[in-house]
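Journal club side-thread
Mid-discussion, someone asked how the predicted structure for our own chain would compare to the paper's figures. Pasting it here so we can look after the session.
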Amino acid sequence: MSALATLQQVYGFEAFRPYQEEIVERVVAGHHTLLVMPTGGGKSLCYQLPALIREGVGIVISPLIALMQDQVSALTQLGVRAACLNSSLPLEAQREVISWAVKGHLQMLYVAPERFMTNDFQSLLRQIRPALFAVDEAHCISQWGHDFRPEYIQLSKLREQYPDIPCIAVTATADEPTQVEILERLQIPTTGRFVTGFDRPNIRYTVVLKKQAKQQLLDFIQSEHPDAAGIVYCFTRKKVEETAAWLQSEGFEALPYHAGLDSQIRARNQERFIKEEGLIVVATIAFGMGIDKPNVRFVAHMNVPKSLEAYYQETGRAGRDGLPADAWMVYSLGDIVQMRKLLETSDTNDKQRRVEQHKLSQLFGYCESVACRRQVLLNYFGQEGEGACGNCDTCLNPVARWNGTQAAQKVMSCIARTGQRFGAGHVIDVLVGKSSDKVSRFGHDKLPTFGVGEEFSATQWRAIIRQLVAGDYLSVDVIGYGGIKLTNACGPVLKGQEEVFFRQEQEAPRKKKRRHTPAVHYDAQPDDEALFQKLRQLRMELAKDQGVPPYVVFGDATLWAMVQQRPTDLMAFNGLSGVGQVKLERYGELFVGTIRMHEAG
């Protein structure tokens, strides 16, 4: 069967998305490939479809159990004979999967990188015919990547042991150095590299200055996504617990997730998030890599992540179904200090530390930028933007810049004259001419810089200092007592050879309330909403009966296609995107029947 015919019959899609057909045909022909494609762009199909067409079993190397189980559940719903081998399976179940593979009953087999390189699994590979090897989350193989995992390094032996079996490495987040290392480790030719772009146009990016973070988060969720599934990332386990409890006290179903929780509680919370509707998970970055839930409507960061790659990957967990979603983050000077302290006290070598420092600086630059957020992100990954996106905070509420060279010179001079050992609060007191006990004790009220900054408030000076730290003009003594120091970049500014521009701080405008369901994508009417909820309830009941996530029955996008087209017979239902042959036979009458009853009133 051809690739297109398989796509239509198994997946229920009439046509390929951009780049998919070329990549599928390349892998089917036996060529090694690296695919960098944004989350929700259809990466999985690029190795699943060739595995169904080629002779043998498609071997997928995947980093997390939850990710394997999600994909296996989804494939089983499509009628594909898929299974996974991992530590969550009882020994008897593992033996059964191995038996299926040896007997040729499997089309796809998912396995963790640690298990892949064991002698037992290598022995199994010699008894079966691998159709291909797919390395998912391939950025984990690179020490330049944001989520390096040492066990992935072993996969460099993969191509040496199986040179004639096509290998496809896929990831959503890999900058140029990371891509080069993936190519080298897996011996993929440069002609096999496909970078389809990094844009996620359905995601709205917003960064706000941190003031009362929990209240700001609550206001955001209540105004934008009161009934939706979302992920909230916090830096520490303590903050995870506090934030989850806060949301629960405000009436939201919020579950904590971090490495310090009992493993059974952690697993239960993750399973609930995957299988139920409208839940919020508050988590450290321990959560999310293996989450394939397509209808996450928002990802919120209560602290900045460690790099733009990490930010892109984490925010990419929102809106995988292509419907509107939000990436929302609060940010402060304290975040800069915290992240730099973490880096300075880490065990990484000097070379890696410099790399991470550069990545942090780029992230802080993103937070302080007055340019289109999407353009900044795309430029970071080497992709040209096509002008302002119109779907981020700086596009929707443009931010002015002002020439702050003189203000920067005043700050730098004040820091130098006070000895480069005091924190922001003391420096600001001197600038605004505040005669505190500490200022008097050190004689700083006698300095030429005392009171030279009266034109700005303490809040405005704090914003100026934050932006100078983010721009690497100032550094904070993260090992000592938090004193602010000058960097080498200050020289040209103090000499008048370089100008400095700042964001014009302003109060966040009141947002116009948006619709809270994916219906916003379709400008739905009340009757559409009512039918959608009936179909959603039917989906939930079917999913519960089978013990699978609702979205593997049908995604929200397919439910909305039913609402828009309202098929009342199986032929029309079969024409919907996302309805393949097996799902038509399994669910067609149930969903068509629900639509008929709704139409009859």
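Post-session note: Residues 336 and 470 are 7 Å apart (CA to CA).
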